Amino acid sequence: MSTEEKSLNFIEQIIEEDLKNGLTQDKLRFRFPPEPNGYLHVGHASAICLNFGLGLDYKAPVNLRFDDTNPSKEEQEFVDAIKRDVEWLGFKWDKECYASDYFQQLYDWAIELIKKDKAYVDSISSEEMAIQKGTPTTAGTDSPFRTRSIEENLDLFTRMKNGEFEKGTHVLRAKISMRANNMLMRDPIIYRIMHAHHHRTGNDWCIYPMYDWAHGESDYLEQISHSFCTLEFLPHRELYDWFLNQIYDETKVRPKQREFARRNLSHTVVSKRKLLQLVEEKHVTAWDDPRMSTISGMRRRGYTPNAIVNFANTIGIAKRDNLIDVSLLEFCVREDLNKIAPRVMAVLDPVKLVITNYPEGKEEWLEAENNPEEEVMTYRQLPFSKELYIEREDFQEEAHKKFFRLTLGTEVRLKNGYIIKGESVVKDENGNITEIHVTYDEDSKSGSGSEASQRKVKGTIHWVSIPHAKEAEVRMYDRLFTHENPDGNKEVDFKEFINPDSLKVITGYVEPSLTSSKELDHLQFQRLGYFCVDRDSTAEKLVFNKTVGLRDTWAKVSVQ
Predict the structure, then answer these.
(1) Which of 16, 35, 335, 484 is catalytic?
(2) Annotated catalytic, 272?
(3) Are the C-beta atoms of residues 520 and 296 closer than 8 Å to each other?
(4) Disulfide engineering: 542 pairs with which of 161, 449, 472, 499, CB 3.0-4.6 Å?
(5) Which ranges carry the Glutamyl/glutaminyl-tRNA synthetase class Ib catalytic domain (predicted)?
(6) pLDDT at position 558, please?
């Protein structure tokens, strides 16, 4: 990568500096290391774009490595979902790896640590260990088992592996220092006993490595050159390097851990634990509920991979945690959908409109453009008849001067159709309008070239023909949380900020062409917003999810 191509972020500067100092281009290798204990969220999307983006920029391979060291929380379902999400975002990994691929090697290295008197089996309780570790301002104290002989440690560790002990009776700890300033260096746990079925290794192991032990050593085994983590792993870097020092061969690439800040998104939570809570407590329907900040939820809602990647590239990376306004993500979604989403007719709050002077039983097909953003314009045919549905808000019986839609005595154009004039209304016993009666100008058909067709009127409204309209379930999604930072106050349960109006299900009517639409098809319901076809949709029962409105109704300032 040349610095002339673009200004470099601090991560790229680190890589460039390493290349100048002798690391060869062919030794560059990156990785994305998710734990398969939940579905990926928007924060992971940024990390995916960073690591795979570096791979593309530097023409370097990127591994997808699953940190599957905790079988009590991990499932094959999550592995499959993670792979699906990474592929959907448009990225390809070089090698599919698992920490469990290295369980034997990690165990063998742990044996070597014991033999070098750099690890020992500890048998105190977790509560005792927490006390014995001290505090950030007071030194820890040695475990009474820290002086066990190498022979005894080897024997106990072997028996731990063989399943002779119950969970919690023993752990293997690194022998570093109980007086280290960094509390993570105070004899950290390397292995713990877990009698749990592993999604890949089955019941082969009764002990499992801790993240800090598995992560750096896995990087080393895969010859990862740069291991990029979020800021909470900064204190772990010292331990990462200590573990590497124990097994590093100078003829090989030594991985380098460096940290970047989380880019938190407003009106969301991105903790997998809290997302799981939302699912398990039925605040949402599933991990891919369109209100969730998961990649699968955003996909189902109708967000595009291009929009998410553009968002990640726009916010970039930083050294300090930051709260990004979700309106920026929605702006990226609108910008992408504007280019690709066909414009279609849909009415979500219908009122009947009758063209009194239109011939009874007549039916015609009008030409409508699919997307004005297309380089080569395409068209479709729309059915038109005497009776239509229009949006209730597009008519006012008595309107103010700045209301440019349909009123009594004024004219508007029906999109792709004719100019109509409001004549009268029909009301029910409660005074609610049930029908709007209008007349049309037969010579004003859009695109006919007639003088009347070129007559200017102040408003244009959309519609669907009642005899041809298809009923549809429309799920109107809004932000899941009313507070911009629902997770910001640790004294308040984040669930208190759940938006009770985050989902409203309504019945709408759409043009008949949509009966052939398929799952995840993106559409713009003209003048209403962007929608996509939900997986629940069938030709007999259409279901659409609202992706985003045509403009931001939440933003404090406009996105220019």
Answers:
(1) 35
(2) yes
(3) no
(4) 472
(5) 27-338
(6) 38
